[in-house]
Amino acid sequence: MLRWLCVLPAALLGQLVLDFLAAAAFSFARDLVLAIPDDSATASFALAIRGGSAVMTACRLLLSYMTPKTAFTLVGGKMAPRYQVITAILLTLLGFLRSAWIHGPTNYVHVAAETAGLVLGTLFVFWQNRRDRSKRAVETSAAPQPSVKRES
Predict the structure, then answer these.
(1) 3-class DSSP state for residue 66?
(2) Contacts of 147 (CB under 8 A, 6+ apart)
(3) Is the pLDDT of residue 4 over 80?
(4) What count of other Cβ atoms lies within 10 Å of the Cβ of residue 56?
(5) Considering only CA atoms, which of 120, 114, 123, 76 is closest in space to residue 95?
(6) Which residue intervals of 51-107 are DSSP H helices?
(7) Cα(10)–Cα(73) distance, rounded to whole angstroms?
(8) Domain coordinates in residue numbering, the chain
(9) pTM higher than 0.85
(10) What is the mean pLDDT of residues 87-95?
(11) pLDDT in tens, 48-68
């Protein structure tokens, strides 16, 4: 029962940790690009990123929106003692509703990025459970079966 009570707080904590790490990584990458001198061989790449190119926007969406939501469903789904895939699906639905409420209908790119992260986390939980289930099936079939003697 205690693990069920910890599902949502663990999911939120996982998201919070990745929010912090993503912000730090994005800040570090931005500062690294800004430190490139304009006369170097990579100046055109640095200028494209400084100008707000599509590459930098995609990196920001990946780091700031998708990755934390993946952690939300992955950590919450794996915290559940049973029904982990169903729990991850419910967390995906909850995360989508929260994202749609926060960003509204006008900021659909952020909603789409967060939803993609939520679905990705759910797929990770599904694949991990499927792999674990097949591992247990192989271990069970490989274990020697006790012989039962029948009396005639």
Answers:
(1) helix
(2) none
(3) yes
(4) 17
(5) 114
(6) 54-61, 67-79, 84-103
(7) 10
(8) 2-139
(9) no
(10) 96
(11) 656 566 777 777 788 889 999
